[in-house]
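Give me the fold.
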Amino acid sequence: MNQLRFWKAIFTLGALAVALYVLCQVWTVLIPFGIGIGIAYLVQPLIARFEARGVRRDRIVIVLYAGLLTLCVSLAVIFLPVMVREARQIGGDLPRYAATFDTMVERLNADIAGKFEGSLGKRAAALRIPFKAETVMDRVLAVSPHHLLGYAHFGLWAIIIPFVAFFTLSQGRRWMDALFDWTPAEYVESLLGLLAEVDSTLGAYIRGQMIEGGCVGVVTAAGLALLGFDGALLFGAATAAMNLVPMMAPIVGGALALLFGYFQGLPTSALIGIFCLFLLVRLLDDFIFIPFVLGHSVALHPVMILFAVLAGFEIGGFLGLVIAVPLAAVLKVVIGVVFGERRLSPVLDGRHIVS
């Protein structure tokens, strides 16, 4: 019997290793499936509320899904043309922006060489910033056509994501029942408690983060529009997306807005207004949006958040930046349940103890 358990354990570990290897090889293919499952996860509480009132799940899913699709299409029809027009305008102005930036760099190089020419002589000419924005832009434009086929798969996401989300919503209960059917009886209560802990933390964080990002994006877009910034809606949407990564929106978004505002020829008062706008957005985010929307759904130490963000970027790029903090929160919950004061004994030693 002990030998049989040993070989079962070896087989299980080998199967997990193979599964992890396959996931690492095809993880990019799984992105739209993960997004679809995530959408279904976010919508699930609404379906649960209607189910509690006695409405059939299939009817709820069809009506709610049709409503969400209608809302998304309506928002796309209203805002997408404006954002595309702004993106084209900014793209057409990029050569002029690059030339302006190169002029600034050349002036800075000349000033540096002039200051050190007396002490270094001709060697002062070597003290220059070797950067050409026009050269970088030409390289990007030259490489982009070769990646058009690589970008083409994003068009499939518009089909895959809604399909996966609908299938997950309609079959979600069956998947959970199957999960508990596969779980040994002595571990069911432990698994149920663990899933409840993860759901309360992860669900609150994701939903709150989306609402918080929307608030940040709306305030940013409205403020930039009032300041006469070209591309206010596009930068508002970009700021909302960057807000998914802690501290990225005010630093990167603000710096880019100031840079583009300068290239657009905005007056100094408008540039100061952009700086004050992002400072105001940061204060609103810290003292209003986060406390009232997110609350304490993810109680992670700032050092742990920084480590999670850097590790996520190193492993998965921008996608790693986005999912690093929620994954760290889930890991903290799992560790807290298994090893903390709230540990569930069947997970540790196979015995069920009612406290």
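Residues 341-355 have pLDDT under 50 and may be disordered.
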